[in-house]
Write a structure and sequence with these properties.
Rossmann fold; alpha/beta; 257 residues; binds nicotinamide-adenine-dinucleotide; 7 helices; 7-stranded parallel β-sheet
């Protein structure tokens, strides 16, 4: 049976670990050839993900160096992905992200600028570069999935810059949905609760924090990277052909309370 993404080319940013790696592997399992990126000094992680894709799923994979705050790097990287896809780029997962935990009274300009540069400016300009390829290819069109957060919608201490960036990601998602629908480009967001990844694992060693977080999740546990990747794979699939401008909560019910 043909897989849902056979014949497509995908780009997943920040795919050397955590959610990005799980997503890249899931899209490959669904038949997509996948370009994965990592920061220049973490390039061996992108190579490792590409090797896993080839060995586990038998599809082509390409590892590239990308700092999403560097516009020239974005331009050259997306051009390489389009060449890898024989001129096509069908799917972008804007996954690269970071956080600096600081109480609002103590937020520094440096931390604010860094979080906004990676999580908001980076998301937009990678989408712009990928969207241009999707607009100009024949047949035109594609799918972009941005990674928001439950903190795009609800408050929690210590995450002002992160929440500002992830709320902005929802705004970008809606605006690009409206502007790019005529080019057959769908743009959606995934908004997870805490996911068990290298980013969050150290925080959950604090048992008070862990109990507080779990108490707020009706399903009573963290999300897994594979669960979030399944949501992304759904939005990327032909089954979601009529879904655009949507933010899919994958929060175990946190925002329903
Ligand atoms: N883990 C969670 O609980 C959680 C919850 C909601 C949303 N998210 C979001 O999911 C995404 C993935 O997070 P994760 O938990 O897998 O974390 P992670 O730290 O494992 O992965 C983030 C990746 O982004 C890369 N990255 C950081 N700065 C970059 C830059 N300037 N340019 C390019 N790549 C860069 C990192 O090297 C890393 O590979 C992020 O956008 C994060 O905000 C995570």
């Amino acid at each position: 049976m043909e897989k849902t993404l056979t014949g497509t080319t995908a780009l997943v940013t920040g795919a050397g670990s955590g959610l990005g790696q799980a997503t890249a592997l899931r899209l490959a399992a669904d038949g997509s050839r996948v370009a994965v990126t990592e920061l220049p000094h973490l390039q061996e992680r992108a190579e490792a993900t590409a090797t896993m894709i080839r060995e586990q799923h038998g599809v082509d994979a390409l590892a590239l160096s990308l700092d999403v705050t560097d516009l020239a790097n974005i331009t050259s990287c997306v051009a390489e992905v389009a060449a890898f896809g024989d001129g096509r780029l069908d799917l972008l997962v804007n996954n690269a992200g970071m956080n600096v935990l600081q109480p609002a009274f103590d937020v520094t300009e440096e931390a604010w600028d860094r979080v906004i540069a990676v999580n908001l400016k980076g998301v937009f300009f990678v989408a712009q570069a990928a969207g241009r390829v999707m607009r100009d290819q024949t047949p035109n069109g594609g799918c972009i999935v941005n990674i928001g957060s439950q903190f795009s919608f609800v408050g929690y201490p210590g995450r002002t810059a992160y929440a500002a960036s992830k709320s902005g990601v929802i705004g970008i998602t809606r605006m690009l949905c409206v502007e790019w629908a005529e080019h057959n480009i769908r743009v959606n967001a995934i908004c997870p609760t805490f996911v068990d990844t290298p980013l969050t694992r150290p925080f959950f060693e604090d048992q008070d924090f862990k109990q507080d977080a779990l108490r707020r999740i009706p399903l009573g546990r963290l999300a897994t990277p594979d669960e979030v990747a399944a949501g992304i794979a759904y939005l990327a699939s032909p089954g979601a052909a009529m879904v655009t401008g949507h933010s899919l909560m994958m929060d175990g019910g946190w925002t329903a309370i």
